[in-house]
């Protein structure tokens, strides 16, 4: 598949889980791909080596989403290395959960910095380089649509903010032919939330389909939005959750 041949993509948090699946899928579809990581250097190199072995072009960048300067620098480094930027996937994020009474302002500030402020910073920096046909795709969470259990107030708050941010980006950038979408994933089998984890038996009962999805399910939707199929999709959320919010 070469639908994205000639395109350049940047994926934040692309060394593992959903981010790695997205990075590898975009590379398979023909894009030159840069991706960031924070601490998992070994996993980042594994992803890069696989892309390189498959004949793709890849750039690995260490950048912490908590630092807006680092996020902006990652965009600029991608443009310097590959000469352009067509696709930004805001994937990097963290989760802080627990009883409402135990949540602190510091918790809220950190979640906001990594999961929302960094998306704004990356999108603003990327938009300066994008031309017509550019794509800004942000990975959110089905918890923006439904919160089925307690202890997720702060996380639901920041993921909900991404929908409003995406709508604003769509209006600001639409006249330039650049789209903005958010993909709200449901229960996805990753290291952070394994399908065989301690809460899995209960969690399996929430989606209408009765099981977890895979990182590849999210990557497939991102690839669709990044390609020709996404050219008339903007300012909206696509939910890939197996009926989690049904």
Question: What's the gist of this structure?
Answer:
With 246 residues, the chain is α/β, with parallel strands linked by helices. It is built from seven helices and seven strands. Helix 1 (17-28) links the parallel strand 1 (8-11) and strand 2 (32-37).
Report on the architecture of this protein.
The structure is a single chain. With 246 residues, this protein is an alpha/beta fold. The protein is 41% helix and 15% strand. It is built from seven helices and seven strands. It has a seven-stranded parallel beta sheet with strand order 3-2-1-4-5-6-7, sandwiched between helices. The longest helix has 23 residues, at 105-127. The two termini are 33 Å apart.
Helices and strands in order, then pairings?
Blueprint: E1 8-11, H1 17-28, E2 32-37, H2 41-53, E3 58-62, H3 68-82, E4 87-90, H4 105-127, E5 135-139, H5 153-173, E6 179-185, H6 200-203, H7 215-226, E7 236-240
Parallel strand pairs: 1-2, 1-4, 2-3, 4-5, 5-6, 6-7
